[in-house]
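Regression report. Comparing outputs from two consecutive submissions.

Submission 1:
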Amino acid sequence: MFAPIGLEALDVEMLPRVQVGDGCTRIELPSRGGVRIWIVDMKPGSEWPLVDSHGGGGEDVFVVSGEVIEGEARYGPGAFLKYGPHSRHRPRTEAGARLFGLNVQANGDGASM
């Protein structure tokens, strides 16, 4: 049996949470240079506190559980949302949601989510 080399396994529930707004928390996951990976938990009835603006790398989001609302569209578990370069959005939820996402920094861009 082959044993993996260089594997680091983490319990994400043990990592620090950052409160980003009423009912919205973020867990930053360890990653590689130029890539930011995170988990966002949104309690029922919450909304992201600010308009989330992205640089040239955009943002990719996978809805793990619950439901996230963007504008009038609702996305449930298994939805993959791909925000293009220089996109903007402000997610909200009625049911609560857990989101997994990543931002790729392009040309020194940062990401706000």
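Submission 2:
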Amino acid sequence: MNIRIEPMKHSQLETVAALLDDSKLPSEDVEEHWQNFLVAFNGGQLVGAVGLEFYNTDGFVRSFVVAPSLRNNGLGKRLYDAAVSYARSKSVARLGLLTNTAEKFFAREGFQKIERERMPEFIKQTKEFTTFCPSSAVVMVKNLS
């Protein structure tokens, strides 16, 4: 595997949206946030992506996806580590997310599940929360400091 992770280019929107759609993840608003996406390539093929939204010193992890054929081999961890490094470069102190499928992965990375009643305001502002994620989605947060 020859993996490289880099900032997303606007020309990669359709490819990232297709990867998200194939994994049953929201892709409708990727264009609003593409400047804060990282993409992973295996050779010349786009095989993963993760986006961030920034709210002062908080960051929201969204659209985290790895191609099915490359799951469970460390690519998700590499993509996650790159996203955390990027968030830290933007002075983010806390990350939050919503997930239906990756709770165990994020728990291994130090995220804590929280009750919806205790959800931070910055997560409530996201389209992921207001529009795209079902009420069954798990809310998780992690302090980076």
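Expected: both submissions complete independently.
Actual: both completed, but the second showed a warning that disappeared on reload.
Relevant detail on submission 2: The domain at 3-143 is CATH 3.40.630.30 (Aminopeptidase).
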